[in-house]
Design goal:
The protein is of the alpha+beta class. The chain is 23% helix and 19% strand. The termini are far apart.
Length: 199
């Protein structure tokens, strides 16, 4: 057995161990620092897209989903509702959705939606931010004979049809907002992002 010490081997092992321990220490310090710069889980959830199952949504049913702290309505329209939406254009302030900020470009059509049968709207009045009430009945006494179903703002009396288009002569200045969204197959909607991934 040799009694000589290999100093070069000892230096190499000491240097290698120092590098490993130093790297681990730097990572331990960096992880909390980097993670503190990332948004919290709550902040991510507040702005994250919402995936919605609409397989059980029946014709005439309205469901409410929360996205970015706002109510978003998804409504399945019947052929009768679609027909009624074309007969009330003269009582609407912006029937063609001329104000582009009200909806994504792919929803600038008569139904203000990707698919005619499914409406997706942010359920907040464009006047002062109240949430309108869903009023599907036709020509109720309190809303008048031109009412073909829609949304009524109880705070200040604004009225919107079942495409979210605002009536004339009410306080709300513009149509209800259509959020960005897209379909994942026939029965799922992703709200808060368009098909290209832009929010």
């Amino acid at each position: 057995m040799s009694s000589t010490v290999d100093n070069s081997k000892r230096r190499f092992l000491t240097t290698a161990a120092s590098v490993v321990v130093g790297g681990a220490g730097a990572a331990a310090v960096a992880v909390p620092f980097v993670s503190s710069m990332l948004p919290s889980a709550k902040a991510q959830a507040a702005g994250a897209p919402v995936n919605v199952d609409i397989s059980k949504l029946q014709v005439g049913q309205l469901m409410t989903i929360e996205w970015r702290g706002k109510p978003v309505w998804v409504y399945r329209r019947s052929p009768e509702v679609l027909q009624n939406m074309t007969s009330n254009l003269d009582v609407l302030r912006d029937p063609t959705s001329a104000v582009l900020e009200q909806q994504p470009e792919y929803c600038k059509n008569d139904a203000r939606s990707i698919r005619e049968d499914l409406m997706v709207l942010v359920g907040i009045c464009t006047h002062l931010g109240c949430s309108p009430t869903y009023r599907p009945e036709l020509a109720p006494e309190d809303l008048g004979s031109d009412w073909k179903g829609g949304f009524f703002g109880p705070c200040h009396g604004s009225k919107f049809d079942l495409a979210g288009r605002v009536y004339t002569g009410v306080p709300a200045p513009t149509n209800l907002i259509v959020p960005p969204y897209y379909f994942q197959g026939d029965n799922r909607i992703v709200i808060g992002e368009d098909a290209q991934g832009a929010a």
